[in-house]
């Protein structure tokens, strides 16, 4: 009996959050180890499906760097990076689109559908969702088919959410000439959250959040303002793959997103813990 009482207590604790977020949009950037562990993938899909069932509008934007790297290796295509960005020549772009908009996207869609949701896979090409231009490297180096988003045509997302579906978006974009661009998934999530003026932007990562000591999980920074980001970057606390996440948080918050979170996607049901409990996990980024 005690076990059932505990379950009921959990549901009661979630009630005010369910009421607060009913009808609200939450953009979820899905990446890191949360995508690599099959068990965690299933749990994450369950979280997303449950969010929809309690009245929220989850929108999933995913990455897939490790999968792209593995396929490039199988095809004997060298992976090259410049200032942290994958140099994307013609052959690499074909693989990027195949993996992101193909196998990874459809795997996520299938898992959400198996969990009881109704997910629909998209790339930024569908409905001209993500309109991009060539990204120019800070040092002027040519990084190929890497793009930066200039506009989000978000109507297709609203239509799908309104029809009870869960959009799952691969960050592949296009332009006026029909060219294909590889877009950073974190950046795409921030741009989409900003365009939708989402209630929350949540990054599922392979770290507990922002750590003041990268080697000590006990040094989690539970909340950070963007005014503090420059100093943390100078100290090396924010570096590498965390930089585009923080920049995406900044963009989203500037355009009306209420809260941005960086949480540990390796924790079972991390999304539900963050959204429906008082405790929460990870780092809250505010203006």
Features:
287 residues, alpha/beta, Carbamate kinase, two-stranded antiparallel sheet
Verbal overview:
This protein is an alpha/beta fold. It has one domain: Acetylglutamate kinase-like (Carbamate kinase, 3-Layer(aba) Sandwich). It has helices spanning 2-21, 33-36, 38-53, 65-74, 90-114, 155-162, 185-196, 226-234, 242-254, 270-276, and strands at residues 25-30, 57-62, 81-82, 85-86, 119-123, 130-134, 147-152, 166-170, 172-174, 180-182, 200-205, 223-225, 259-264, 283-286. The strands form four sheets. It has an eight-stranded mixed β-sheet with strand order 5-8-2-1-11-13-14-12, sandwiched between helices. A two-stranded antiparallel sheet has the order 3-4. Strand 9 (172-174) and strand 10 (180-182) form a beta hairpin. The mean pLDDT is 89.
Entry summary:
The chain has 287 residues and is of the alpha/beta class. The protein contains ten helices and 14 strands.
The best one-word shape is: globular
For the secondary structure, the number of strands is 14
Taking the sheet with the most strands, its summary is: 8 strands, mixed
Strand fraction equals 15-25%
């Amino acid at each position: 009996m005690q076990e059932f009482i505990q379950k009921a207590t959990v549901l009661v604790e979630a009630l005010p959050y369910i009421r607060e977020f009913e009808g609200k949009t939450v953009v979820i950037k899905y990446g890191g180890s949360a995508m690599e562990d099959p068990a965690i993938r299933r749990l994450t899909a369950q979280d997303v499906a449950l969010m929809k069932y309690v009245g929220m509008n989850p929108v999933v934007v995913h990455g897939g760097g490790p999968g792209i790297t593995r396929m490039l290796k199988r095809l004997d295509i060298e992976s090259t990076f410049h200032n942290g960005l994958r140099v994307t020549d013609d052959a690499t772009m074909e693989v990027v689109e195949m993996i992101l908009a193909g196998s990874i996207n459809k795997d996520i869609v299938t898992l959400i559908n198996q969990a009881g949701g109704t997910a629909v896979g998209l790339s930024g090409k569908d409905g001209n969702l993500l309109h991009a231009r060539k990204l120019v490297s800070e040092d002027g180096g040519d990084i190929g088919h890497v793009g930066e988003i200039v506009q989000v045509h978000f109507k297709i997302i609203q239509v799908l959410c309104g029809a009870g579906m869960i959009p799952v978006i691969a960050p592949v974009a296009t332009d006026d000439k029909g060219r294909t661009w590889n877009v950073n998934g974190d950046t795409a999530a921030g741009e989409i959250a900003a365009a939708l003026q989402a209630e929350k932007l949540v990054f599922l990562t392979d770290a507990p959040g922002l750590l003041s000591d990268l080697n000590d999980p006990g040094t989690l920074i539970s909340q950070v303002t963007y005014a503090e980001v420059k100093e943390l970057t100078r100290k090396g606390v924010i570096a590498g793959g965390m930089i585009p996440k923080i920049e995406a948080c900044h963009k989203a918050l500037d355009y009306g997103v209420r809260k941005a979170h960086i949480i540990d996607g390796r924790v079972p049901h991390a999304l539900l813990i963050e959204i429906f409990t008082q405790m929460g996990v990870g780092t809250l980024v505010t203006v």
